[in-house]
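Obj.: predict assembly geometry.
Materials: sequence records (below).
Method: joint structure prediction, all chains together.
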Amino acid sequence: MEVNIFNLERDHQDIKEQLIERFRDVLSRGEFILGREVASLEEAFASYIGVKYAVGVNSGTDALKIGGLSLGLKPGDKVVTTPNTYISTAMGLSIHGIEPVFCDIEMETYNMDPEALEGLLKREKGIRLCIPVHLYGHPCRMDEIADICKRYGVQILEDACQAHGALYKEKKVGSIGDVGAFSFYPTKNLGCYGDGGIITTNSHEVYERALMLRAYGQTSKHVHAIEGFNSRLDEVQAALLLIKLEKLDYWNKRRRHIAWLYKRELGDTPVILPQEATWAYHVYHLYVIRVRQRDELMAYLREKGITTLIHYPTPIHLQGVYSRLGYQEGAFSNSEEAARQIISLPIYPSMKEDEVVYVSRCIREFYGIQA
Ligand SMILES: Cc1ncc(COP(=O)(O)O)c(C=O)c1O
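Observations (raw structure tokens):
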């Protein structure tokens, strides 16, 4: 049996005709940029997340960049985030002279450790923004993080690029900090057909600045108040995302069911399975396990027709691009240990029970455990 880490083609089977029909509609109207579809998506997404405003942009990286700049960050300011994330969590702003400072994770959720955050804010001056990353679809400890940030006068930009629909207590992630940033990269829980992203906020001021920043800093056509970018979401993408948004909760439930199946099948093996905190609603963008013989297990699964990946093999404080920051190996022991041991197993909404059982059986075989 072949089991891929994602299966976008199968995930789309049920809605394929609907998508094609909507694509025809948009095509026949001839309005392709910042029109009624983007406006409808922004309204629907803001309401889904539980915020007043949403601004569609052209990637998750741009949502982070424009989100941070909309909060008034300037070159020379510092931003704290965790090292075990996708590079753009830091790069979206560092390219504008807003340097990252890192803080370690806790091993239960692989997310920002509030104690480490507090220690860092005590020591390091000039940090104006905190970017907690709801990694793999599991929310961060937002009450603790928000409380610490408030005490130190630090704003919060949630990186929710992997966590559409995840809940922290009763709240959707992306509605808790000053700004939320989401990616619509095709493999995300809510993905489009190319690049796309969206910013969420309750602040009218941030909303207005984000609108300007995504469109050349303009306040109205040919009137430019500030310097900005071209970072618009296309009408076609927005129209198709509106169809998919309706399915998001169902697809997240499917992901949770697959996670439950993995737990049933792998609960008695030496594999460390992902946990869901009592206060969390995990949406399992990725199903990340931890093992000691990582390379051997990945090779074994590859031989059995199963693809797996590592999210992410190099913690970003050790990436060449940030060597200027002077971090050495050993600086963040939890992030580094996780990076050595993690494997992302296949998970996607249309994954079948027999595929989960097959992947799990192969892992059991690897450990010499009876089925
Ligand atoms: C945690 C995280 N942050 C930011 C991004 C960047 O999103 P995009 O690829 O849409 O620019 C991603 C997606 O890859 C991500 O997983």
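Conclusions so far: The chain has twelve helices and 14 strands.
To do: check interface contacts against the pulldown list.
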